[in-house]
Amino acid sequence: MTPLHGLVQWESIRTYMEKGPEFAPGVAPYEGLHTFDKEREDMREEYLYKERSALGVAWWYVSHVFTLWRFPYWVAEWDHGYSMKAMPDSIAAWSQAIPPEEWAKPSAELKEESVKIEAAFAEGINFAKYFESKLVKID
């Protein structure tokens, strides 16, 4: 969508390729109908122990009525069941990791850029600021 989005994607790929799978973002927690029930129980407990006001409870119910109550959670559960099906054996075999000795080695330029960006992050410079001067502006 924008050059910054592309850079963020590239940085996540670079980090994964350079540092390995342990630096990849984890899988988001599974959400479904049980999530709604847990949220409602938590809200009731908060009200019972005076951590949430009656107005807060009313707002919780109103906001969930406007978002179609349990429907979004039902859709999430349906999607989870649909999209988490096992891949065919041919794709699973193709997707197996290659041994470390076959991995491509990072170039000197990539190593140099990695050192620079990690130093910038350590100084508190965020991703957008770091690449701001490197982006080509199109008029």
Automatic annotation (TrEMBL):
This protein is called what? Uncharacterized protein
Q: Which source organism?
A: Pigmentiphaga aceris
Instruction: Output the lineage of the source organism.
Output: Bacteria, Pseudomonadati, Pseudomonadota, Betaproteobacteria, Burkholderiales
